[in-house]
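=== RUN LOG ===
request id: a7f3
mode: sequence -> structure
chains: 1
length: 495
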Amino acid sequence: MTTQSPLARPSSEHSVSEKRDVSHVEASDAIEEEEDPIEAKRVLRKIDWRLIPLLMFLYTLTFLDRVNIGNARLWNLEKDLGMTGYDYNIVVLVFYIPYILFEIPSNILLTRVQPRYWIAFLTLGWGLSVTFAGFARNFGGLLTARIFIGIFEAGMFPGSLFLIGSWYKRHELLSRMAWFMVSNDIAGSISGLLGAGLGSPDGVRGVSGWRWIFFIEGGVTCLAATLAFFFLPPFPQDSTFLQPEEKTWVLRRLRADSSQTGQDEKMNVRGAMRSLRDWKVLTGGVLYLAVCVTAYSLSVFQPTVLKTFGWSSLKSNLLSTPPRVASGIVSVCVGIWSDRVKRRGVFCVSGYAISIVGNLLVMLLKNGNLRYMGLYFASIGIYICQPLVIAWCSNQVVGSVKRGTLTAFAVSCGQLGGIISAVVYPSKDSPQYVPGISTCVAFQVVGILAACNMWFWARHENQQRDLGRRDHLRELAEDEIAKLGEKHPDFRYTL
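=== RESULT ===
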Protein backbone atom coordinates (compact mmCIF):
# COMPACT_ATOMS: atom_id res chain seq x y z
CA MET A 1 0.00 0.00 0.00
CA THR A 2 1.47 3.40 -0.99
CA THR A 3 1.14 6.70 0.84
CA GLN A 4 0.13 9.70 -1.18
CA SER A 5 2.40 12.74 -0.94
CA PRO A 6 0.86 15.83 0.66
CA LEU A 7 1.92 17.64 -2.53
CA ALA A 8 -0.35 15.48 -4.72
CA ARG A 9 -4.00 16.06 -5.57
CA PRO A 10 -6.58 13.28 -5.26
CA SER A 11 -6.19 10.34 -7.65
CA SER A 12 -9.37 11.25 -9.54
CA GLU A 13 -7.63 14.38 -10.81
CA HIS A 14 -4.53 12.37 -11.60
CA SER A 15 -6.58 10.01 -13.77
CA VAL A 16 -7.64 12.95 -15.89
CA SER A 17 -4.03 13.80 -16.64
CA GLU A 18 -3.35 10.24 -17.76
CA LYS A 19 -5.87 10.64 -20.58
CA ARG A 20 -4.19 13.69 -22.02
CA ASP A 21 -2.23 13.51 -25.27
CA VAL A 22 1.27 14.19 -23.97
CA SER A 23 2.67 14.50 -27.47
CA HIS A 24 0.97 17.88 -27.77
CA VAL A 25 1.93 19.36 -24.38
CA GLU A 26 5.06 19.93 -22.38
CA ALA A 27 6.02 17.09 -20.10
CA SER A 28 5.59 19.35 -17.10
CA ASP A 29 1.82 19.59 -17.64
CA ALA A 30 1.23 16.13 -16.16
CA ILE A 31 3.03 17.12 -12.99
CA GLU A 32 1.03 20.35 -12.80
CA GLU A 33 -2.16 18.27 -12.77
CA GLU A 34 -0.87 16.33 -9.77
CA GLU A 35 0.34 19.29 -7.71
CA ASP A 36 -1.55 20.72 -4.79
CA PRO A 37 -0.98 24.40 -5.67
CA ILE A 38 -0.91 25.54 -2.05
CA GLU A 39 1.65 22.94 -1.00
CA ALA A 40 3.67 23.47 -4.18
CA LYS A 41 3.83 27.21 -3.53
CA ARG A 42 4.93 26.58 0.06
CA VAL A 43 7.82 24.32 -1.00
CA LEU A 44 8.92 26.69 -3.76
CA ARG A 45 8.93 29.61 -1.33
CA LYS A 46 11.04 27.52 1.04
CA ILE A 47 13.56 26.97 -1.76
CA ASP A 48 13.39 30.61 -2.84
CA TRP A 49 14.21 32.01 0.59
CA ARG A 50 17.04 29.56 1.15
CA LEU A 51 18.70 30.12 -2.23
CA ILE A 52 17.95 33.46 -3.91
CA PRO A 53 18.64 36.16 -1.24
CA LEU A 54 22.07 34.78 -0.35
CA LEU A 55 23.13 34.45 -3.99
CA MET A 56 21.80 37.96 -4.65
CA PHE A 57 23.94 39.33 -1.83
CA LEU A 58 27.06 37.52 -2.98
CA TYR A 59 26.58 38.57 -6.58
CA THR A 60 26.00 42.17 -5.52
CA LEU A 61 29.42 42.06 -3.88
CA THR A 62 30.87 40.43 -7.00
CA PHE A 63 29.65 43.22 -9.20
CA LEU A 64 30.63 45.97 -6.77
CA ASP A 65 34.16 44.61 -6.51
CA ARG A 66 34.40 44.31 -10.29
CA VAL A 67 33.23 47.81 -11.24
CA ASN A 68 34.43 49.82 -8.24
CA ILE A 69 37.47 50.76 -10.28
CA GLY A 70 35.18 53.11 -12.22
CA ASN A 71 34.39 54.97 -9.00
CA ALA A 72 37.98 54.75 -7.75
CA ARG A 73 39.16 56.49 -10.91
CA LEU A 74 37.42 59.65 -9.76
CA TRP A 75 39.43 59.68 -6.50
CA ASN A 76 43.03 60.14 -7.74
CA LEU A 77 43.68 56.52 -8.78
CA GLU A 78 45.55 57.36 -11.98
CA LYS A 79 47.44 60.26 -10.43
CA ASP A 80 48.68 58.25 -7.43
CA LEU A 81 49.82 55.29 -9.53
CA GLY A 82 51.30 57.34 -12.37
CA MET A 83 48.90 55.90 -14.94
CA THR A 84 48.67 57.56 -18.35
CA GLY A 85 47.19 56.93 -21.80
CA TYR A 86 45.49 53.54 -22.06
CA ASP A 87 46.73 52.30 -18.65
CA TYR A 88 43.26 52.55 -17.10
CA ASN A 89 41.66 50.75 -20.03
CA ILE A 90 44.24 47.95 -19.73
CA VAL A 91 43.53 47.54 -16.02
CA VAL A 92 39.81 47.25 -16.78
CA LEU A 93 40.46 44.84 -19.64
CA VAL A 94 42.89 42.42 -17.95
CA PHE A 95 40.25 41.33 -15.43
CA TYR A 96 38.26 39.58 -18.16
CA ILE A 97 41.03 37.33 -19.49
CA PRO A 98 41.22 34.91 -16.50
CA TYR A 99 37.48 35.39 -16.00
CA ILE A 100 36.82 33.93 -19.45
CA LEU A 101 39.36 31.11 -19.13
CA PHE A 102 38.08 29.75 -15.80
CA GLU A 103 34.29 29.81 -16.36
CA ILE A 104 33.77 26.25 -17.63
CA PRO A 105 36.45 24.62 -15.40
CA SER A 106 34.80 26.26 -12.39
CA ASN A 107 31.38 24.79 -13.21
CA ILE A 108 32.99 21.36 -13.64
CA LEU A 109 34.48 21.68 -10.15
CA LEU A 110 31.14 22.89 -8.78
CA THR A 111 29.53 19.53 -9.60
CA ARG A 112 32.29 17.74 -7.68
CA VAL A 113 32.67 20.02 -4.68
CA GLN A 114 29.71 21.13 -2.58
CA PRO A 115 28.54 24.59 -3.73
CA ARG A 116 28.99 26.10 -0.29
CA TYR A 117 32.65 25.10 -0.13
CA TRP A 118 33.50 26.18 -3.66
CA ILE A 119 31.62 29.48 -3.71
CA ALA A 120 32.86 30.40 -0.21
CA PHE A 121 36.44 29.79 -1.38
CA LEU A 122 35.90 31.97 -4.46
CA THR A 123 34.30 34.75 -2.39
CA LEU A 124 37.18 34.84 0.07
CA GLY A 125 39.71 34.82 -2.79
CA TRP A 126 38.36 37.81 -4.65
CA GLY A 127 37.66 39.69 -1.40
CA LEU A 128 41.33 39.42 -0.43
CA SER A 129 42.38 40.41 -3.95
CA VAL A 130 40.28 43.59 -3.82
CA THR A 131 41.67 44.43 -0.39
CA PHE A 132 45.26 44.01 -1.55
CA ALA A 133 44.52 46.19 -4.61
CA GLY A 134 44.25 49.06 -2.13
CA PHE A 135 47.94 48.56 -1.28
CA ALA A 136 49.08 48.95 -4.91
CA ARG A 137 51.96 51.41 -5.38
CA ASN A 138 52.15 51.39 -9.15
CA PHE A 139 50.39 50.32 -12.32
CA GLY A 140 51.85 46.79 -12.15
CA GLY A 141 50.55 46.19 -8.63
CA LEU A 142 47.00 47.19 -9.55
CA LEU A 143 47.20 45.09 -12.73
CA THR A 144 48.20 41.99 -10.72
CA ALA A 145 45.37 42.48 -8.26
CA ARG A 146 42.84 42.77 -11.09
CA ILE A 147 44.08 39.49 -12.59
CA PHE A 148 43.48 37.66 -9.30
CA ILE A 149 40.05 39.27 -8.93
CA GLY A 150 39.21 37.85 -12.36
CA ILE A 151 40.48 34.38 -11.43
CA PHE A 152 38.35 34.12 -8.30
CA GLU A 153 35.22 35.86 -9.60
CA ALA A 154 35.15 33.62 -12.69
CA GLY A 155 33.16 30.85 -11.02
CA MET A 156 30.66 32.89 -9.03
CA PHE A 157 28.24 34.05 -11.72
CA PRO A 158 27.99 30.90 -13.89
CA GLY A 159 28.01 28.74 -10.78
CA SER A 160 25.09 30.65 -9.29
CA LEU A 161 23.12 30.44 -12.53
CA PHE A 162 23.84 26.71 -12.73
CA LEU A 163 22.69 26.19 -9.14
CA ILE A 164 19.50 28.22 -9.62
CA GLY A 165 18.72 26.41 -12.86
CA SER A 166 19.03 23.08 -11.07
CA TRP A 167 16.20 23.86 -8.64
CA TYR A 168 13.36 25.16 -10.84
CA LYS A 169 11.21 24.14 -13.78
CA ARG A 170 11.82 25.90 -17.07
CA HIS A 171 8.98 28.40 -16.76
CA GLU A 172 9.75 29.18 -13.13
CA LEU A 173 13.33 30.04 -13.95
CA LEU A 174 13.35 33.54 -15.46
CA SER A 175 11.64 35.28 -12.56
CA ARG A 176 14.24 33.76 -10.19
CA MET A 177 17.12 34.68 -12.50
CA ALA A 178 15.71 38.20 -12.80
CA TRP A 179 15.66 38.54 -9.03
CA PHE A 180 19.20 37.18 -8.88
CA MET A 181 20.46 39.49 -11.62
CA VAL A 182 18.77 42.50 -10.08
CA SER A 183 21.94 42.33 -7.99
CA ASN A 184 23.54 44.06 -11.00
CA ASP A 185 21.14 46.93 -10.55
CA ILE A 186 21.54 46.97 -6.78
CA ALA A 187 25.29 47.11 -7.23
CA GLY A 188 25.02 49.70 -9.99
CA SER A 189 22.65 51.76 -7.85
CA ILE A 190 24.80 51.77 -4.74
CA SER A 191 28.22 51.77 -6.41
CA GLY A 192 27.88 55.46 -7.09
CA LEU A 193 26.73 56.09 -3.53
CA LEU A 194 29.54 53.96 -2.15
CA GLY A 195 32.02 55.61 -4.49
CA ALA A 196 30.95 58.98 -3.17
CA GLY A 197 30.83 57.88 0.48
CA LEU A 198 33.82 55.57 0.75
CA GLY A 199 36.02 57.82 -1.36
CA SER A 200 35.10 61.00 0.52
CA PRO A 201 37.71 60.42 3.31
CA ASP A 202 40.24 61.23 0.57
CA GLY A 203 43.47 62.19 2.33
CA VAL A 204 42.42 61.00 5.79
CA ARG A 205 45.46 59.40 7.49
CA GLY A 206 47.33 60.07 4.26
CA VAL A 207 45.21 57.54 2.35
CA SER A 208 43.63 58.45 -0.99
CA GLY A 209 39.91 57.95 -1.53
CA TRP A 210 40.37 55.13 -4.04
CA ARG A 211 42.30 53.08 -1.46
CA TRP A 212 39.47 53.45 1.07
CA ILE A 213 37.04 52.10 -1.55
CA PHE A 214 39.14 48.96 -2.09
CA PHE A 215 39.92 48.38 1.60
CA ILE A 216 36.33 48.60 2.83
CA GLU A 217 34.58 46.81 -0.03
CA GLY A 218 37.19 44.02 -0.05
CA GLY A 219 36.91 43.52 3.71
CA VAL A 220 33.12 43.21 3.56
CA THR A 221 33.44 40.56 0.83
CA CYS A 222 35.85 38.50 2.96
CA LEU A 223 33.31 38.47 5.79
CA ALA A 224 30.54 37.46 3.36
CA ALA A 225 32.45 34.27 2.51
CA THR A 226 31.39 32.86 5.89
CA LEU A 227 27.71 33.23 4.94
CA ALA A 228 28.27 31.18 1.80
CA PHE A 229 30.12 28.51 3.75
CA PHE A 230 27.38 27.99 6.35
CA PHE A 231 24.13 28.71 4.51
CA LEU A 232 24.41 28.05 0.76
CA PRO A 233 22.30 24.97 -0.20
CA PRO A 234 23.59 22.09 -2.37
CA PHE A 235 22.07 20.74 -5.59
CA PRO A 236 18.53 19.29 -5.16
CA GLN A 237 19.60 15.63 -5.01
CA ASP A 238 21.92 16.43 -2.05
CA SER A 239 19.60 18.79 -0.18
CA THR A 240 18.91 18.31 3.52
CA PHE A 241 16.76 21.37 4.33
CA LEU A 242 13.69 19.82 2.63
CA GLN A 243 11.53 17.08 4.10
CA PRO A 244 11.97 13.68 2.36
CA GLU A 245 8.60 13.90 0.60
CA GLU A 246 9.37 17.49 -0.47
CA LYS A 247 12.73 16.46 -1.90
CA THR A 248 11.15 13.54 -3.79
CA TRP A 249 8.50 15.86 -5.23
CA VAL A 250 11.11 18.43 -6.35
CA LEU A 251 13.25 15.82 -8.12
CA ARG A 252 10.22 14.19 -9.77
CA ARG A 253 8.86 17.46 -11.21
CA LEU A 254 12.30 18.49 -12.48
CA ARG A 255 12.67 15.21 -14.36
CA ALA A 256 9.16 15.46 -15.81
CA ASP A 257 9.71 19.08 -16.87
CA SER A 258 12.71 18.16 -19.01
CA SER A 259 11.49 14.77 -20.28
CA GLN A 260 14.64 13.01 -19.14
CA THR A 261 16.19 11.20 -16.19
CA GLY A 262 19.84 12.23 -16.24
CA GLN A 263 19.54 15.01 -13.69
CA ASP A 264 22.37 13.73 -11.49
CA GLU A 265 24.96 13.48 -14.26
CA LYS A 266 28.10 15.43 -13.38
CA MET A 267 29.92 17.75 -15.73
CA ASN A 268 33.19 16.66 -17.29
CA VAL A 269 35.50 17.94 -20.00
CA ARG A 270 34.24 15.48 -22.64
CA GLY A 271 30.60 16.33 -21.95
CA ALA A 272 31.35 20.06 -22.00
CA MET A 273 33.13 19.82 -25.35
CA ARG A 274 30.25 17.76 -26.78
CA SER A 275 27.76 20.38 -25.54
CA LEU A 276 29.72 23.16 -27.22
CA ARG A 277 28.83 21.63 -30.58
CA ASP A 278 25.14 22.38 -29.96
CA TRP A 279 24.10 25.53 -31.84
CA LYS A 280 21.70 26.49 -29.04
CA VAL A 281 24.63 26.66 -26.61
CA LEU A 282 26.59 28.75 -29.12
CA THR A 283 23.58 31.04 -29.62
CA GLY A 284 23.48 31.60 -25.87
CA GLY A 285 27.03 32.92 -26.10
CA VAL A 286 26.14 35.29 -28.94
CA LEU A 287 23.06 36.63 -27.15
CA TYR A 288 24.89 37.22 -23.88
CA LEU A 289 27.85 38.86 -25.64
CA ALA A 290 25.38 41.25 -27.27
CA VAL A 291 24.06 42.09 -23.79
CA CYS A 292 27.38 42.54 -22.03
CA VAL A 293 29.03 44.99 -24.41
CA THR A 294 26.43 47.56 -23.36
CA ALA A 295 25.99 46.33 -19.79
CA TYR A 296 29.68 46.68 -18.97
CA SER A 297 29.94 49.97 -20.80
CA LEU A 298 27.17 51.34 -18.59
CA SER A 299 28.60 49.87 -15.40
CA VAL A 300 32.22 50.94 -15.81
CA PHE A 301 32.01 54.11 -17.91
CA GLN A 302 28.68 55.64 -16.90
CA PRO A 303 30.21 57.88 -14.17
CA THR A 304 32.80 59.05 -16.71
CA VAL A 305 30.10 59.79 -19.31
CA LEU A 306 28.04 61.68 -16.75
CA LYS A 307 31.04 63.84 -15.89
CA THR A 308 31.11 65.03 -19.53
CA PHE A 309 27.75 66.67 -18.84
CA GLY A 310 29.71 69.23 -16.80
CA TRP A 311 28.85 67.60 -13.47
CA SER A 312 31.21 67.15 -10.52
CA SER A 313 32.68 63.76 -9.53
CA LEU A 314 30.27 63.56 -6.58
CA LYS A 315 27.20 64.39 -8.69
CA SER A 316 28.29 61.99 -11.44
CA ASN A 317 28.59 59.14 -8.93
CA LEU A 318 25.26 59.92 -7.30
CA LEU A 319 23.29 60.28 -10.56
CA SER A 320 24.55 56.96 -11.90
CA THR A 321 22.13 55.35 -9.42
CA PRO A 322 18.56 56.17 -10.65
CA PRO A 323 18.84 54.46 -14.09
CA ARG A 324 19.93 51.25 -12.39
CA VAL A 325 17.03 51.38 -9.92
CA ALA A 326 14.58 51.75 -12.81
CA SER A 327 16.18 48.92 -14.82
CA GLY A 328 16.07 46.58 -11.82
CA ILE A 329 12.37 47.13 -11.25
CA VAL A 330 11.50 46.66 -14.92
CA SER A 331 13.71 43.57 -15.25
CA VAL A 332 11.95 41.73 -12.40
CA CYS A 333 8.49 42.71 -13.67
CA VAL A 334 9.30 41.48 -17.17
CA GLY A 335 10.74 38.25 -15.73
CA ILE A 336 7.54 37.50 -13.83
CA TRP A 337 5.43 38.38 -16.89
CA SER A 338 7.54 36.21 -19.20
CA ASP A 339 7.29 33.19 -16.86
CA ARG A 340 3.52 33.55 -16.66
CA VAL A 341 2.95 33.71 -20.42
CA LYS A 342 5.80 31.23 -21.10
CA ARG A 343 7.28 33.41 -23.83
CA ARG A 344 10.83 34.75 -24.19
CA GLY A 345 11.50 35.89 -27.78
CA VAL A 346 9.23 38.93 -27.91
CA PHE A 347 10.65 40.29 -24.65
CA CYS A 348 14.22 39.66 -25.75
CA VAL A 349 13.89 41.50 -29.05
CA SER A 350 12.02 44.38 -27.36
CA GLY A 351 14.74 44.77 -24.73
CA TYR A 352 17.50 45.06 -27.31
CA ALA A 353 15.44 47.57 -29.32
CA ILE A 354 14.76 49.80 -26.29
CA SER A 355 18.45 49.82 -25.42
CA ILE A 356 19.41 50.76 -28.98
CA VAL A 357 17.13 53.80 -28.79
CA GLY A 358 18.71 54.84 -25.50
CA ASN A 359 22.26 54.50 -26.78
CA LEU A 360 21.47 56.57 -29.85
CA LEU A 361 20.06 59.35 -27.65
CA VAL A 362 23.29 59.43 -25.62
CA MET A 363 25.46 59.43 -28.73
CA LEU A 364 23.61 61.88 -30.98
CA LEU A 365 22.17 64.51 -28.64
CA LYS A 366 24.05 67.40 -27.04
CA ASN A 367 21.72 68.34 -24.19
CA GLY A 368 22.82 66.72 -20.92
CA ASN A 369 19.30 66.13 -19.59
CA LEU A 370 18.16 64.38 -22.78
CA ARG A 371 21.33 62.27 -22.88
CA TYR A 372 20.65 61.31 -19.25
CA MET A 373 17.19 60.14 -20.32
CA GLY A 374 18.92 58.03 -22.96
CA LEU A 375 20.92 56.29 -20.21
CA TYR A 376 17.61 55.24 -18.64
CA PHE A 377 16.43 53.61 -21.88
CA ALA A 378 19.83 51.98 -22.50
CA SER A 379 19.88 50.52 -18.97
CA ILE A 380 16.26 49.35 -18.88
CA GLY A 381 16.47 47.63 -22.26
CA ILE A 382 19.72 45.81 -21.73
CA TYR A 383 18.87 44.63 -18.20
CA ILE A 384 15.60 43.20 -19.47
CA CYS A 385 17.73 41.03 -21.74
CA GLN A 386 20.44 40.00 -19.30
CA PRO A 387 18.53 37.38 -17.26
CA LEU A 388 16.21 36.69 -20.17
CA VAL A 389 18.79 35.34 -22.62
CA ILE A 390 20.33 32.99 -20.02
CA ALA A 391 16.92 31.66 -18.94
CA TRP A 392 15.70 31.33 -22.53
CA CYS A 393 18.70 29.35 -23.72
CA SER A 394 18.63 27.20 -20.56
CA ASN A 395 14.97 26.44 -21.37
CA GLN A 396 16.06 24.98 -24.72
CA VAL A 397 18.46 22.34 -23.37
CA VAL A 398 18.16 19.35 -21.04
CA GLY A 399 20.56 17.84 -18.54
CA SER A 400 23.11 19.11 -16.03
CA VAL A 401 26.06 18.81 -18.40
CA LYS A 402 24.56 20.87 -21.21
CA ARG A 403 22.96 23.40 -18.87
CA GLY A 404 26.18 23.87 -16.89
CA THR A 405 28.18 24.23 -20.09
CA LEU A 406 25.69 26.71 -21.53
CA THR A 407 25.70 29.01 -18.51
CA ALA A 408 29.50 28.97 -18.27
CA PHE A 409 30.02 29.45 -22.01
CA ALA A 410 27.45 32.25 -22.26
CA VAL A 411 28.98 34.11 -19.33
CA SER A 412 32.47 33.60 -20.82
CA CYS A 413 31.32 35.14 -24.08
CA GLY A 414 29.72 37.94 -22.09
CA GLN A 415 33.08 38.83 -20.60
CA LEU A 416 34.38 39.46 -24.10
CA GLY A 417 31.90 42.31 -23.94
CA GLY A 418 33.82 43.64 -20.97
CA ILE A 419 37.05 43.54 -22.96
CA ILE A 420 35.42 45.26 -25.92
CA SER A 421 33.89 47.98 -23.75
CA ALA A 422 37.27 48.56 -22.07
CA VAL A 423 38.99 49.48 -25.33
CA VAL A 424 36.27 51.40 -27.20
CA TYR A 425 35.81 54.18 -24.63
CA PRO A 426 39.14 56.08 -24.62
CA SER A 427 39.05 59.55 -23.07
CA LYS A 428 39.86 61.19 -26.41
CA ASP A 429 36.35 60.26 -27.68
CA SER A 430 34.69 62.40 -25.01
CA PRO A 431 32.02 63.73 -24.75
CA GLN A 432 29.88 61.80 -27.29
CA TYR A 433 31.91 58.55 -27.33
CA VAL A 434 30.68 57.79 -30.86
CA PRO A 435 32.92 54.72 -31.52
CA GLY A 436 32.06 53.10 -28.18
CA ILE A 437 28.31 53.63 -28.35
CA SER A 438 28.22 52.63 -32.03
CA THR A 439 29.90 49.37 -31.03
CA CYS A 440 27.19 48.75 -28.41
CA VAL A 441 24.44 49.36 -30.98
CA ALA A 442 26.06 47.03 -33.52
CA PHE A 443 26.22 44.16 -31.04
CA GLN A 444 22.61 44.72 -30.03
CA VAL A 445 21.56 44.42 -33.66
CA VAL A 446 23.41 41.09 -33.77
CA GLY A 447 21.51 40.11 -30.62
CA ILE A 448 18.17 40.85 -32.28
CA LEU A 449 19.11 38.69 -35.29
CA ALA A 450 20.21 35.79 -33.06
CA ALA A 451 17.04 36.06 -30.95
CA CYS A 452 14.80 36.04 -34.03
CA ASN A 453 16.62 32.96 -35.32
CA MET A 454 16.08 31.12 -32.01
CA TRP A 455 12.46 32.25 -31.83
CA PHE A 456 11.47 31.16 -35.34
CA TRP A 457 13.39 27.89 -35.17
CA ALA A 458 11.74 26.96 -31.84
CA ARG A 459 8.30 27.69 -33.32
CA HIS A 460 9.06 25.54 -36.39
CA GLU A 461 10.37 22.62 -34.36
CA ASN A 462 7.38 22.66 -32.00
CA GLN A 463 5.06 22.59 -35.01
CA GLN A 464 6.91 19.56 -36.39
CA ARG A 465 6.43 17.73 -33.09
CA ASP A 466 2.76 18.67 -32.92
CA LEU A 467 2.35 17.13 -36.38
CA GLY A 468 4.00 13.91 -35.22
CA ARG A 469 7.06 14.27 -37.45
CA ARG A 470 9.43 13.42 -34.61
CA ASP A 471 7.45 10.43 -33.31
CA HIS A 472 9.80 7.96 -35.01
CA LEU A 473 12.21 8.62 -32.15
CA ARG A 474 9.82 6.78 -29.83
CA GLU A 475 10.86 3.55 -31.57
CA LEU A 476 14.41 3.78 -30.22
CA ALA A 477 15.63 1.52 -27.44
CA GLU A 478 14.64 2.63 -23.94
CA ASP A 479 18.18 3.63 -22.97
CA GLU A 480 18.50 5.68 -26.16
CA ILE A 481 15.19 7.44 -25.51
CA ALA A 482 16.45 8.40 -22.04
CA LYS A 483 19.40 10.17 -23.68
CA LEU A 484 17.36 12.19 -26.18
CA GLY A 485 17.07 15.20 -23.89
CA GLU A 486 15.49 18.11 -25.74
CA LYS A 487 15.17 15.96 -28.88
CA HIS A 488 12.45 13.89 -27.17
CA PRO A 489 9.14 14.20 -29.08
CA ASP A 490 7.31 15.26 -25.89
CA PHE A 491 9.68 18.17 -25.26
CA ARG A 492 8.54 21.64 -26.40
CA TYR A 493 10.95 24.50 -26.94
CA THR A 494 10.20 27.89 -25.39
CA LEU A 495 9.23 30.59 -27.88
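=== NOTES ===
Residues 277 and 334 are 31 Å apart (CA to CA).
The chain has one domain: 51-236+271-466.
=== END ===
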